[in-house]
Amino acid sequence: MKLAVCVKRVPDMDVRFKIGADNASVDEAGLKFDLNDFDAWAVEAALQLKDKNAGSEVTVISLGPDVVQETIRKALSMGADRGVHLKADKVPFDGFALASALASELKPGGYDLILFGKMSPDSANGVVGQMVAELLDLPCVSAISSLEIANGKGTAKRELEGAQEIVEFSMPAVLTVDEGLNTARLPSLKGIMAAKKKPLESKPAQLPQPQLTVLKLELPPERKAGRIVGEGSAAVPELVKLLQTEAKVL
Amino acid sequence: MANVFAFVETRGGEVRKVGLEAVTAARMLADQTGGGEVHALLLGPAGIAGKAAQVGQHGADVVIVVENPSLANYNPEAATATAADRIKAGGYRAAIFTTSAQGRDLAPRVAARLGVSAVTDVLSFEVQGDKIVVRHPMNIGKVIATISISATPAIIAMRPNVIAPAQNPRAGRVESAQPAADPNSTRVKVLETRQGSRDKLDLAEAPVVVAGGRGLKAAENFKLVEDLASAFGNAAVGATRAVTDDGWRPHADQIGQTGRLVSPELYVAVGISGAVQHLAGMRTSKTIVAINKDKDAPIFKVADYGIVGDVFEVVPALTEAVREAKKHH
Predict the structure, then answer these.
(1) Chain A contact set for B140 (CB, 8 A)
(2) Counting Cβ atoms within 10 Å, is residue B212 exposed (0-12), middle (13-18) or buried (19+)?
């Protein structure tokens, strides 16, 4: 099988973000970056298919400045075979611009499956995979939490609000991956060494003019400090009273 | 004055609440442009036309009804083709979708087919000259972006629960249409929609969410959380990632950065320490109650009301008190 996984380098979310001097970007100073979790699960899904299908090849693609090569190397160290870096000064917020650039790279690739994480936590828009599928006129199943491939056909499960969908699709196809599909393997030392020698091609990203402009970023208002009503079940009557009279939710 | 399109999400032949939210949002946007028409697309199996009046009540001037037996389950390819065709033909200023599992799948497909971008999880919108400006949370809700959309149509997927469905009766003139793509195509086919228990409220739609964490110590103790939810009567049950990773609850119940985002009227955190990953999914709740034995747990920093104590003692007492309070209403 020929497999492609599109990945993104994202900041660790466990911090207090600062807005940059332009008021329209996050100040990156001091942030730690890594492969997006959802994308790691997409890489893992591709590697599991590779393990089952001898002669498969996994290509990892990422768009952005030179530092995204580190993210591609991480996927290579997990076991992917080659990397493609689509070079751009920054990653635009506009998902359609991203999808267009990725689609023009993916189109001639002849991939059986193209995988994405279902979203990235930073831009949090979750549109790129589905848009790539449309641009390439491929069937698409988004946010899958299970996957089986047999006889050129796939079956996947999607979590809905209070329900699940079982979806069958023909290949080639585009899939976006939700949590629960798998647990991503950690790169082994041997994998890290091997990744250094794997091919990583860098070329300019073909980004169209964006249609979305981030005008400004703001930090949401802090929640005003709450209070400890009391200790143990003795505090329950007071809590219920507050929920009735102050919060008016009971 | 500009016309606005709305996609009305349905499941099992019923209009979902988020579907009516999309119609209400489209009505608000059309009114902001000086009072255009709202055209709503309603796809479903035989009988879905019977729901058109409900859509008209919420502000649709025209309800485009597509009835087909193959639309009983979500049909991504037929829905994409039909919505994209109608949006193209209608010359709309904007098209409103929902940031639900279905809307997240559909809105970007329709946008790409029309050659335009899309913004999901939208909190609010405003028409500013020839642009539509929206607010969209980024970085797990720790940053709010104001984004200008220059494309026409602007494809906007609203976050559930931010605009309440509002009665605003319009003609709701029914126009019957056919699917724009073969609904029996096998490229992507939803074989089955497995509905969870019917009487269970969805996390994103429930006015009250009761969620449990590791402090419950074992899967079977989730009964405490379920009992409290049932005492409220209008509550859904959620869980932290630690709990779903341990298999105490299904992944679909996970509230947090990689799971569901909720903003109910009331959020009750039971035995939840308040890891960043969890707070990302619930910090916009209107009122937060936390019950935890550790007085230094980070959950108390976001909670409006906290009780420091043993969940096994406090939660049954609270369940009883809520049941009593509900009785007297």
Answers:
(1) 13, 121, 124
(2) buried
